[in-house]
Amino acid sequence: MAFEDYQIKEGLYYTKDHLWVKIEGSDDATVGITDYGQHQLGDVVYVELPEINKEVEAGEKVASVESVKAAVDIFSPLTGQIISINEDLKDEPDLINTDPYGDGWVFEIKMSDPSEVEDLMTATDYKVYLQEIEEEEE
């Protein structure tokens, strides 16, 4: 698939690890795996979710996802406290595949430093990043 074929939502932030971040209110953020990221993984069969109330640093491993192709770690894009996890993923890990920007979200974090969002990519930046990945693979 070409990078243009992947769903990239405006108004979200993105990481080079193919996570999306939706800012809600002044300091809450929801985190999930992008459409590109879930496509690269293939069929997700298991999700290890983070602990609620755990304090995490940006870049720290907080969860992992297993698919038919690979097992990958999820690193928090932001520093803060895990305030919610998507319990539905325990029974339906494939929600990450079928609805990556909706029911397939992974966790919510209360940011301790909202300025870290400035280090993330916008939708436009992420499109450029995916285009660069595609060109490198050719």
Written description of the protein model:
The chain is α+β, with helices and mostly antiparallel strands and 138 residues long. It has one domain: Beta Barrel (OB fold (Dihydrolipoamide Acetyltransferase, E2P)), CATH 2.40.50.100. It is built from 4 helices and 9 strands; from the N terminus they run βββαβββββααβα. Strands 1-2-3-9-8-5 form a 6-stranded antiparallel beta sheet. The protein has a 3-stranded antiparallel beta sheet with strand order 4-6-7. Strand 2 and strand 3 (28-33) form a beta hairpin. The chain is globular and about 40 Å long. The two termini are 12 Å apart. The model has no long low-confidence stretch (mean pLDDT 96). The modification N6-lipoyllysine is found at residue 69. The glycine cleavage system catalyzes the degradation of glycine. The H protein shuttles the methylamine group of glycine from the P protein to the T protein. This is Glycine cleavage system H protein.
